[in-house]
Design goal:
The complex is a heterodimer of chains A (about 750) and B (about 550). In chain A, about 25% of the residues lie in helices and about 25% in strands. By secondary structure, chain A is of the alpha+beta class. Chain A has a domain at about 425-500 and about 525-690: Methylamine Dehydrogenase, Chain H (7 Propeller). The longest helix of chain A has about 40 residues, at about 10-50. The termini of chain A are far apart. Mean pLDDT of chain A is about 75; it is low at about 1-10, about 25-100 and about 115-130. Chain B has about 550 residues and is an alpha/beta fold. Chain B is flat and about 120 Å long. Chain B has helices at about 15, 20-25, 30-40, 50-55, 65-75, 75-95, 100-110, 115-125, 125-130, 135-145, 155-175, 215-240, 260-285, 305-310, 360-365, 400-410, 415-440, 445-465, 485-500, 505-545; strands at about 15-20, 65, 180-185, 185-195, 195-205, 295, 315-320, 340, 355. Among the domains of chain B are: about 15-75, no CATH class; about 80-115, no CATH class; about 115-240, no CATH class; about 290-390, 3-Layer(aba) Sandwich (Rossmann fold), CATH 3.40.50; about 505-545. In chain B, β3 and β4 form a beta hairpin. Classes of the chains: A alpha+beta (about 750), B alpha/beta (about 550). Chains A and B meet through α10 and β30 of A and α3, α8, α9, α10 and α12 of B. Chain B: GO terms for molecular function: ribonucleoprotein complex binding; RNA binding.
């Protein structure tokens, strides 16, 4: 049989199958012969060996598909047989209660014998074992006693212990063993330790060596069967190897021969989609992306040159020393700088970071705003509006105008040579005698002083009793007269500081007025003779005005005298007095604004009146206005007329000096903003092409101003010297300035109660 | 007379500009797409000269684009690609929603892509144009190559950036084009000269980034897309200019090692080129500054940066095998001349080599000479690291360290320290004086003299006015030494002052502004000098104390 079996399965499987077949075959033959004894033996083995059963069964089940039906039926037969055997055995047990022990011993002996035999012939042993398994039933219920799974105490009071399958009572063994018997048994019976009481049958069973061994194995947690290989390789039925035989014998379905409708539908859908262009065929992998080549191989400038509005982005400025990880110590912030940096708005900060010093490179941390800065740069690149800004890249030296050198324009006063001191109040006004020998000054301390120019000695002091606003020396060299304005009076002084002839001439001029009596004594201006003490001091005439007089000016001839009384509301602001006839007149009938100062034209009968913002020029003969000059300044403070008479300069309180060329325009030919503070006084030199301006900033600026006879050539104005010397007191600096009539010298009077001569 | 009345804002600058929203509508693009297009095409807003005119009389803040620019965008093929992409995303979403995975897969395979080659060519018609604009590209690529692969951007982008930057560095090494290096607190600045163009880039330190939340990474990614393309083409061209293959064959999967494995590859070509380049090299001594020197990098120093710099100047460099592959020799190599260490002390020291801190390498590069190593030994307080990008003009503040380096460059030997200090101080003193002189235009001295005279006079006057008789005393008169040069100078200064007075208002304003800027500069320089002096004095005092 063994040889005939097929060899396509693995040997193990084959063996199993063989065994099963053998079992069934042998069983049939033996059944009749061996009968009870063997059955008993089988039974006992069965009890303890049922552990083997599931594995065997599984194997059998697996084998089922392959094995013949006969095998299967044979097994079942054997199961029914075993039951029969058991029944017989039970019956026998019940019958022979007495000689039970003997029998048991016999049984043990027999089994032992059989074991020995089996040990000798392995085949035989195997056969026997397999036979036992054939009797195994899936039902594990003990069927020697049919009472079922109940507490056996219930039968305590009965002589029997249950019923067998035939319904006969199973009687308890006669048991009159007391403790002593038990003890003796324990002492004497060498098999006592292997004797087990069977509750179901009430009998004692002595375990065989095999059974003991089995118990031990089970206690140790080992598999019951010694021969069972726990680690046998598993057989994979459903492997990748294609078997030539089908796993099942089932015929193929019909549907496997018929084309699927659903598939057809799906395919037609796809075909439609492809036709419609909804599905594109799989794209050929285009690896040209990310592949580089010589992009600029054909460099032609014709390709889309950037239009001219294109502005390339400015590059990021390169880092300075401050950004170093180890900057020089001077670049690190002090505490104050750091505090300032923290206070400032991030957009105002000069540096976007605080310079830090690390003693070594390994200590430098990551810059926390790195990504931010890159991102901001990105934003700048695509979001920030760009504009072309013309950066003026001029050399500042080129901006400075080219002027003739001051050296070439000499003479002009350059250094302070004399200081005239004596006044105790600020000196408002100074005037030089036409001979150039005497200097008169009027001060707020109420005195008029006469100085010898060269020696700076005060020759004479006249107390006039009031702050002197203005003094003016008569420009006529044949007389020696001084007009002094204080409060509302204009005094005429004869200082008698000249030759006797001149003094007498001036006396005559003044006294000549006596003969001609004033015709209109009742006018706004009254003429009066000085008396007593005043006469001794040299004061000859008092011209009483209705209001405070601010300025007196002589006509070049020395006979006429103009006085200014600034007043908003009245037209009585300017008076022109004729000394020889002691007559006064108001040339204007209408108020044209606050008169600041007036001046006579040096040659022609013109009269200049400076109001707050403009200068008006009147023709005295025709009695009409000829010109109105716009000074372009807020408030004119002073005015001077060029000895030629065609040019006028005006100083103003808003720091400006405007030069008018009367032939050119009514607008200033030049505005000079040299001074830092209000201009108080301006003056022309009578001989040299010089003019000067004095200001509250304590400086006197001498300018060269050449006037050409050629009308086409504009005057040349060059500042040549800044003279400083006066001390600023009460925010007032230099108040008045006058040139020497013949020399290139200049006198200035200041708020520090001094008069200074610059030569 | 007569004719139609001219309407406002229908001609002139008003028609040359277009607001952003209008432009967007004209192009029919969403704002992100418009932004991307502007970035790729390099279109930026313009600030009109007369905003009110352009803005049709309104002064509201608006960004204006040139109409020409927008019209230029109108014909860009990439706009179509944007639309395709939009459609693709919509389809993909739909497929996802329906859980049609096969459709998803199919769509993904057909994902629309676009190339930027033509844009690069258009934006940079010539190679030099492209080189000029490469600074930002390099900075960005170096930044992206340091990103962790954590989803801030595509991993491919990071890898590509890394590859391109390494290729760039290799080119710089091969061409020996590096000129200046500067370790700042932000990162390391490098400046190379490629084809006569100075190219500066900034590499962040090797730390993981703390990704800020207020940064739009999409914008950065779009820029990077453009920049990687640009850099790739530039690398190609540059490699070919050196007769090298591009992309280098040695590029393996691990881009990180490229630099070093590639080096070996380079050497073959280098040998060929060497003969050709020899003459050039001889001309520029700086290029082989480190030639013949053998460096070993300790594990704590920034390996990549130092290796790059040293190789750029012909030095040999190696590191510990366990730090990174590519090390060529061991620490134990006897021929090593310099070991770069950044720790206070080291246990085992070899006698025949210098142990120096990494700053030495960078300072040498910037000074273009091998600096004395004494100042850079282990544990020594390092001299300040100066920026090589600052070029001091006249009147600017020059740190004394720079003077020292300049003296070394001229070949003067550094004298004893103390002497030097003395000299420096003198120099500084002179400088300051001169500066002051310049500042004040020689006014003050005149003033001072005058003031003195004035005071004398005043005293006398006071005495006189108080009625006291003057103390008659004959004192030997002092001979006033008149320096003719000085007088002349004064005269000139005064002349200038007077001339300035005669300036026109406009010019005066400009002049004042310029002069103000100059003055501020000198003031700042003086401040720095004063700070330095105070610091030096403090240091000296400390030293003295320590001596005592």
């Amino acid at each position: 049989m063994e040889e005939s079996s097929g060899s396509m399965r693995s040997s193990k499987q084959r063996e199993e199958m063989k065994k099963v077949r053998e079992k069934t075959a042998r069983k049939r033959s033996k059944e009749e012969e061996e009968e009870q004894d063997q059955d008993q033996d089988q039974d006992q083995d069965q009890i303890f060996n049922f552990n083997n059963k599931p594995a065997e069964e599984e194997e059998e089940d697996e084998d089922l598909s392959d094995s013949e039906d006969s095998v299967y039926s044979g097994l079942e037969d054997s199961g029914s047989d075993s039951e029969d055997d058991e029944d017989e055995e039970e019956a026998l047990d019940a019958a022979a209660d007495d000689d039970e022990e003997e029998e048991k011993e016999e049984q043990a002996q027999r089994t032992e014998e059989r074991r020995r035999k089996e040990g000798g012939v392995t085949d035989g042993k195997e056969e026997q074992k397999k036979d036992e398994y054939e009797h195994d039933s899936s039902d594990e219920e003990d069927i020697r006693n049919t009472v079922g799974n109940i507490p056996m105490e219930w039968y305590r009071d009965f002589p029997h212990i249950g019923y067998d399958l035939d319904g006969k009572k199973i009687y308890k063994p006669i048991r009159n063993k007391d403790e002593l018997d038990d003890f003796l048994d324990k002492m004497e019976n060498p098999d006592y330790w292997r004797t087990v009481h069977d509750k179901q049958t009430g009998s004692d069973i002595i375990l065989s060596d095999d059974q003991v061994e089995l118990v031990n194995r089970l206690q140790r947690g080992q598999f019951g069967d010694v021969n069972f290989n726990e680690y046998q390789p598993s057989v994979e039925f459903f492997s990748k190897d294609v078997m030539i035989h089908p796993v099942t014998n089932r015929p193929a379905d019909k549907r496997s021969f018929i084309p699927s409708l659903i598939e057809k539908e799906k395919v037609s859908k796809l075909v439609h989609a492809i036709k419609m262009g909804w599905i594109k065929p799989r794209r050929v992998e285009d690896d040209s992306r990310g592949r580089y080549y010589d992009l600029w191989s054909t460099e032609d400038s014709s390709i889309l040159a950037k239009h001219k509005m294109h502005l390339p982005a400015p590059k990021i400025p390169l880092p300075g020393h401050q950004e170093s990880y180890n900057p020089p110590p001077e670049y690190l912030f002090t505490d104050e700088e750091r505090a300032l940096w923290e206070q400032q708005d991030p957009s105002d900060r000069k540096l976007p970071f605080v310079p830090v010093r690390f003693s070594s490179l390994r200590q430098v941390p990551a810059f926390p705003r790195f990504i931010h800065e890159r991102f901001e740069r990105c934003l700048d690149l695509y979001l920030c509006p760009r504009q072309r800004k013309m950066r003026v890249n001029v050399n500042p030296e080129d901006l400075i105008p080219k002027l003739p050198k001051p050296k070439d324009l000499q003479p002009f006063p350059t250094t302070q040579s004399l200081v005239y001191q004596g006044h105790s109040g600020l000196v408002r006004s100074i005037s030089v005698s036409p001979s150039g020998q005497w200097l008169a000054s009027g001060s707020d301390d109420g005195s008029v002083r006469f100085w010898e120019v060269r020696s700076s000695r005060c020759m004479k002091t006249v107390q006039v009793g009031g702050a002197v606003k203005s003094v003016a020396w008569n420009p006529n060299p044949s007389v020696c007269l001084l007009a002094v304005a204080l409060d509302s009076v204009v005094l005429l002084l004869s200082p008698s500081l000249a030759d006797r002839q001149v003094v007498s001439a001036s006396e005559r001029l003044l006294s000549g007025q006596d003969e001609v009596e004033p015709a209109e004594g009742a006018g706004p201006v009254t003429w009066g003779e000085a008396e007593g003490e005043e006469l001794n001091q040299g004061i000859r005439l008092r011209i009483q005005h209705p209001k405070a007089v601010h300025q007196v000016v002589w006509h070049t001839k020395g006979d006429y005298l103009a006085s200014v009384m600034p007043d908003h509301s009245s037209h009585l602001q300017v008076f022109i007095h004729q000394v020889s006839r002691r007559r006064s007149q108001n040339p204007f009938r209408r108020n044209k604004g606050l008169v600041q100062c007036v001046s006579f034209h040096p040659v022609r009968p013109y009269f200049f009146v400076a109001t707050q913002r403009s200068v008006r020029i009147y023709n005295l003969v025709k009695q009409e206005m000829t010109k109105k000059l716009q000074a372009n300044s807020k408030w004119i403070s002073s005015m001077a007329v060029h000895p030629g008479g065609d040019h006028v300069i005006c100083g103003s309180y808003d720091c400006r000096l405007s030069w008018f060329d009367l032939d050119l325009s009514t607008k200033p030919y030049k505005m000079l903003r040299h001074h830092k503070k209000a201009v108080r006084g301006v003056a022309y030199h009578r001989v040299y092409p010089l003019f000067a301006s004095a200001s509250d900033d304590g400086s006197v600026i001498i300018c060269h101003g050449t006037v050409y006879n050629d009308l086409l050539q504009n005057p040349l104005i060059v500042p040549v010297k800044v003279l400083r010397g006066h001390v600023i007191t009460h925010d007032l600096g230099v108040l008045d300035v006058t040139f020497h009539p013949t020399q290139p010298w200049i006198f200035s009077s200041g708020a520090d109660a001094t008069i200074r001569l610059f030569t | 007379m007569g004719g139609l009345q001219k309407k406002k804002f229908e001609r002139g600058s008003a028609t040359n500009y277009i607001t952003r929203n209008k432009a967007r509508k004209k192009l029919q693009l969403s704002l992100p797409d418009f932004r991307r297009l502007c970035i790729l095409k390099g279109i930026y807003p313009h600030e009109p000269k007369h905003k009110k005119k352009v803005n049709k009389g309104s002064t509201a803040p608006r960004t204006f684009y040139l109409v020409k620019d927008i019209r230029f965008l109108l014909h860009e093929p990439i706009v179509g690609k944007f639309r395709d992409y939009k459609v693709f995303v919509r389809k993909l979403k739909k497929a996802y929603g329906k859980t049609e995975w096969s459709a998803v897969e199919r769509l993904r395979e057909n994902k629309p892509t676009y190339k930027l080659d033509h844009i690069i060519k258009e934006r940079y018609p010539s190679f030099i144009d492209a080189l000029r604009d490469i600074d930002d590209a390099l900075c960005m690529c170096f930044l992206f190559s340091t990103f962790a692969r954590t989803g801030k951007c595509h991993v491919q982008t990071i890898q590509l950036c890394r590859r391109l930057t390494v290729e760039w560095m290799n080119y710089v090494i091969a061409a020996r084009a590096l000129r200046k290096v500067f370790i700042s607190i932000k990162g390391i600045y490098y400046q190379a000269e490629v084809m006569g163009q100075p190219i500066t880039w900034l590499v962040p330190y090797q730390f993981s980034h703390d990704h800020p939340t207020d940064v739009d990474y999409r914008v950065m990614a779009t820029f990077t897309e453009l920049y990687t393309t640009l850099l790739g083409f530039i690398n190609f061209r540059l490699y070919h200019s050196l007769n090298l293959l591009y992309p280098p064959k040695a590029i393996v999967v691990t881009v990180l090692h490229l630099m070093f494995s590639f080096n070996a590859f380079l050497q073959e070509d280098m040998e060929k080129m060497e003969a050709r380049e020899k003459e050039q090299k001889q001309q520029e001594a700086q290029k082989k500054l480190f030639e013949g020197l053998k460096f070993f990098l300790n594990r704590e120093v920034p390996r990549e940066s130092l290796a790059f710099v040293i190789r750029c100047f012909g030095g040999e460099v190696s590191w510990d095998k366990s730090v990174c592959i590519g090390s060529t020799y061991e620490v134990t190599d006897e021929t090593i001349t310099h070991q770069i260490v950044d720790r206070p002390n080291i246990d085992q020291q070899y006698i025949n080599r210098y142990y120096i801190q990494p700053q030495w390498v960078y300072d040498c590069v910037n000074a273009k000479i091998i600096l004395p190593v004494e100042d850079y030994f282990l544990g020594v307080t390092l001299p300040p690291h100066l920026s090589p990008f600052v070029e001091e003009k006249e009147g600017d503040y020059v740190p004394p360290e720079k003077m020292k380096i300049m003296a070394l460059q001229r070949g003067e030997k550094p004298a004893n320290e103390e002497e030097e200090e003395g000299e420096e101080e003198e120099e500084e003193g002179e400088d300051e004086e001169e500066e002051e002189d310049d500042d004040n235009d020689d006014d003050e001295e005149d003033d001072e003299e005058e003031e003195a005279e004035e005071k004398n006079l005043k005293k006398m006057e006071e005495q006189r006015s108080q009625g006291k008789s003057l103390q008659v005393k004959v004192t030997p008169g002092k001979v006033k030494v008149e320096n003719p040069a000085r007088l002349e100078q004064e005269e000139k200064a005064e002349e200038k002052r007077l001339a300035i007075m005669m300036m026109k208002k406009k010019e005066k304003y400009l002049y004042d502004k310029i002069m103000f800027g100059k003055k501020r500069k000198t003031r700042e320089a003086n401040k720095l000098a004063a700070k330095r002096k105070a610091y030096d004095d403090a240091e000296k005092a400390k030293k003295k104390k320590a001596r005592k």
